[in-house]
Amino acid sequence: MNMDYGVYGIMGASEQEVMCLSAKERMRAAAGPLLSWYRENARSLPWREEPTPYHVWISEIMLQQTRVEAVKEYYRRFLEALPDIYALARVPEERLLKLWEGLGYYNRARNLKKAAGETVNRYGGNLPASYTELLSLPGIGSYTAGAIVSIAYGIPEPAVDGNVLRVVSRLLADMEDVLKQSVKKRTEDLIRSVMPQDAAGDYNQALMEIGALVCVPNGPPHCDECPLERLCLAKEEGKTGLIPVKAPKKARVIEERTIFAVERGNQVLLGKRPGKGLLAGLYELPGTEGYLNEEEILDWLGVKGEDVELLEGLPEAKHIFSHVEWRMKGYYILLREGAGTTVGFFADKEKAQEAYALPGAFQAYAKYLFGEETGKLHR
Ligand code: SF4
Predict the structure, then answer these.
(1) What percentage of the chain has pLDDT greater than the value 70?
(2) Domain coordinates of the chain in residue numbers?
(3) How far is the CA of 242 from the centre of ligand 1 (A)?
(4) Strands (DSSP E) found in 167-250
(5) Does residue 170 line the site of ligand 1, with CB under 6 A?
(6) Neighbours of 140 (CB within 10 A)
(7) Which of 217, 340, 346, 358 has a 20 to 30 Å separation from 161 between CA atoms?
(8) Does residue 164 have its Cβ closer than 6 Å to ligand 1?
(9) pLDDT tens digit string along 313-360?
(10) Residue 247 burial (CB count, 10 A)
(11) Measured from the CB, is residue 240 less than 6 Å from ligand 1?
């Protein structure tokens, strides 16, 4: 492997000398090989083609908790619909949530719109070229602020996400819990003190990219392909399987729920979730806690028995949120024309599909109304 340490000056250092470097010296020595590696191996991604502040912002928010491959198509559609910050600031919330449908964590989308509005009002439509001012906008934390200023404006500020924490903690054989805020803060300070002033965007992206492609999160890291192998203490000490250290998370709360896919002619029954809590303010297929029997189902929906043309159990499904897991039983219910319910509201199917975003949690049953299973039950 070509170990080009360039200006950082450890080319020719003995193994012993390399192992004795301080954290700062080690990080500084890593910068050269990281940048060379990134410039040769960076993936070509849509948001890297024209890294304007708006493009970097949208892509970084979408990429939180979501795979790169899944984000590509969302990113393309989003920019086609909302090409600039003014379009985002004035988009109706329902249209925005529809564009976000399936990406999850819908508050990310709502915060984008809020921050766009503030950017138009306070900064004349330009995202500020200032780390601290970006931090004052809704939904922008230290990672996103660092990514925007470094990639779009070339300002040397760190952008520390899970990938970066993994790479740095392995490089330094740091056995502290990477989920602690203090460890993140310490890593940001360390990176800020060593990052190349003239290549901040590439440096941050190189750390993220090596974490995504080489020093990977699942399974063993590909140390033999890593430009940092010679510098890496976790590799040297045989601790790559132990680092990053993460304190065990609390077990998820299991919730049993019954979900209803209700049709009446060309209409479907939808509900709107409360303004606070899980999936706040989003549309839903009506449902309730616990498992209900047929009598309880009709009671809960406020439907008379003679109005039901078909009531059929659907396969069980589950959906995992960060702290809660829904274990769902679903029912398909076909109501006769003119029948009413005491929950939710009826919407024309076409309008429901075009205008109302249904979170992924309901997709296992929504497909009986809109997807590949539509109409199969009552043909
Ligand atoms: S040598 Fe291995 S453990 Fe160390 S940074 Fe590279 S891939 Fe990660």
Answers:
(1) 95
(2) 6-236, 253-378
(3) 12
(4) none
(5) yes
(6) 23
(7) 358
(8) no
(9) 999 999 999 899 999 999 999 999 999 999 999 999 998 988 898 999
(10) 9
(11) yes
232 lines ligand 1 (CB under 6 A): yes
Q: How far is the CA of 155 from the centre of ligand 1 (A)?
A: 27
Question: Tens digit of pLDDT for each residue in 27-63?
Answer: 999 999 999 999 999 999 999 999 999 999 999 999 9
Tell me what pLDDT residue 162 has.
95
60 is catalytic: yes
Contact predicate 198/235, CB 8 Å: no
**DSSP single-letter state for residue 313:** E
Instruction: From the CA of 227, give the closest atom in ligand 1.
Output: 6
- Mean pLDDT score across all residues of the chain: 92
Element housing 345 (H / E)? strand 345-348
Report residue 28 as tokens. 């500084």
Distance from residue 315's CA to the centre of ligand 1 (Å): 44
Q: Is residue 223 in contact with ligand 1, taking CB distance under 6 Å? A: yes
- Binned at pLDDT 50, 70 and 90, residue 11 comes out as low
The token pair at 123 is 């900064």
Return the ligand 1 atom nearest residue 229 CA. 1
Q: Residue 376's pLDDT is what?
A: 64
Q: What is the pLDDT of residue 377?
A: 62
Which amino acid, one-letter code, is at 194? V
In the reported structure, the alpha carbon of residue 222 is separated from the centroid of ligand 1 by a whole-number distance in angstroms of 7
With b for 16 or more beta-carbon neighbours within 10 A and e for fewer, the 46-57 pattern comes to ebeeebebbbbb
Q: For ligand 1, what atom is nearest to the CA of residue 226?
A: 6
Instruction: Decide if domain 253-378 falls under CATH 3.20.20.100.
Output: no
Q: Into which CATH architecture does domain 6-236 fall?
A: Orthogonal Bundle (1.10)
The contacts found for 317-324 with CB under 8 angstroms, 24 or more apart, are 317/364, 317/365, 319/360, 319/361, 319/364, 320/252, 321/252, 321/278, 321/361, 322/252, 323/250, 323/252, 323/253, 324/252, 324/253, 324/254, 324/255, 324/278
